């Protein structure tokens, strides 16, 4: 069964509005979650690392004030796209890690497709 | 920085054909290497992995060998099925647990 869920799976919003995407770890507590962005026919690009109880760590070039990440519990992280613009339209994917060292495993959510009109 | 390059798709094969999807990497250290598969409407799933040079990862008939001398991790399967149609991503994991992905290769297997 699914290890990671995302909600919504698809959302359309108007330019200038904000959208919140939820990522839930279903099978285990996740102190660390990752948020990726995937453009059509392109690779997944890591946006940020979300740590429970602390501020997220953003990759270079990602606007932290635009992509707000809140990891409020060990099973939930949210990504809010603020003041969305058409160029923010993309496929957003979260993942969680379980274990450490050689037994590290990363599980991915099914993704959320955002379309900004 | 570290990077992964994989062959562009789509790759179209007939059922029972042999599959190779090329993947090469650039890394400063000794990364772990992965192949992920994304079926339509689903999240990425780990297909196989290799953590050190000369390791062979295998799963569901797919294989890939970690070749340090050629910095490659090519994915192979001897006989593909229609159900193998998906997008395949090669990736490496650096020492900080971050995954760096290739651009993905779409495989379409026709009956």
Account of the protein in words:
The complex is a heterodimer of chains A (117) and B (111). Chain A is an all-beta fold and 117 residues long. Helix content of chain A is 0%, strand content 54%. Chain A has strands at residues 4-7, 10-13, 19-25, 32-38, 44-51, 57-58, 67-73, 76-81, 90-98, 105-108, 112-116. In chain A, the strands form two sheets. In chain A, strands 2, 4, 5, 6, 9, 10 and 11 form a seven-stranded mixed β-sheet that branches. In chain A, strand 5 (44-51) and strand 6 (57-58) form a beta hairpin. The model of chain A has no long low-confidence stretch (mean pLDDT 89). With 111 residues, chain B is mostly beta strands. Chain B is built from no helices and twelve strands. In chain B, the strands form three sheets. In chain B, strands 2, 5, 6, 10, 11 and 12 form a six-stranded mixed β-sheet that branches. In chain B, strands 3-9-8-7 form a four-stranded antiparallel β-sheet, with no helix packed on it. Chain B has a two-stranded antiparallel ribbon with strand order 1-4. In chain B, strand 10 (86-93) and strand 11 (99-101) form a beta hairpin. The mean pLDDT of chain B is 93. Chain A binds chain B through residues 2, 4, 32, 34, 41-44, 46, 49, 93, 95, 97, 102, 104-111, and chain B through 4, 36, 41-46, 51, 89, 93, 97-104.
Biggest beta-sheet profile of chain A? 7 strands, mixed
Fraction of helical residues of chain A: under 10%
* Anisotropy-based shape of chain B: globular
Radius of gyration of chain A: 14 Å
| Oligomeric state, counting identical vs distinct chains | heterodimer
Number of strand elements of chain B:
12
- End-to-end Cα distance of chain B: 41 Å
| Strand fraction of chain A | over 45%
Task: Give start-end ranges of low-pLDDT stretches of chain B.
Answer: none
Q: Give the class of chain A from helix and strand content and strand pairing.
A: mainly beta
Low-confidence segments of chain A:
none
Mean pLDDT of chain A: 89
Q: Based on CA inertia axes, which overall geometry of chain A fits?
A: globular
In total, how many beta strands of chain A?
11
Secondary-structure element sequence of chain B? EEEEEEEEEEEE
H-E string of chain A: EEEEEEEEEEE
Roughly what percent helix of chain B?
A: under 10%
């Amino acid at each position: 069964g699914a290890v990671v869920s995302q909600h919504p799976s698809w959302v359309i919003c108007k330019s200038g509005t904000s959208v919140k995407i939820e990522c839930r770890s279903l099978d285990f507590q996740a102190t660390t979650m990752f948020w990726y962005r995937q453009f059509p026919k392109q690779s997944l690009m890591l946006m940020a690392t979300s740590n429970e109880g602390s501020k997220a760590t953003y990759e270079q070039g990602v606007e932290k004030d635009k992509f707000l990440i809140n990891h409020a519990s060990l099973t939930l992280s949210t990504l809010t796209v603020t003041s969305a613009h058409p160029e923010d339209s993309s496929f957003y994917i979260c993942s969680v890690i379980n274990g450490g060292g050689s037994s590290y495993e990363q599980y991915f959510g099914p993704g959320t497709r955002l379309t900004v009109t | 920085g570290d990077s992964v390059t994989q062959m562009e798709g789509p790759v179209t094969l007939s059922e029972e054909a042999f599959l190779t999807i090329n993947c090469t990497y650039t890394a400063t250290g000794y990364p772990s290497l992965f192949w992920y598969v994304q079926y339509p409407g689903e999240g990425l799933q780990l297909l196989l992995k290799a953590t050190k040079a000369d390791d062979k990862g295998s799963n569901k008939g797919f294989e890939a060998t970690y070749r340090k001398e050629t910095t490659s991790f090519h994915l192979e399967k001897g006989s593909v099925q229609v159900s193998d149609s998906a997008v395949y991503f090669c990736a490496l994991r650096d020492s900080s647990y971050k995954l760096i992905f290739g651009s993905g290769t779409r495989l379409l297997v026709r009956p």
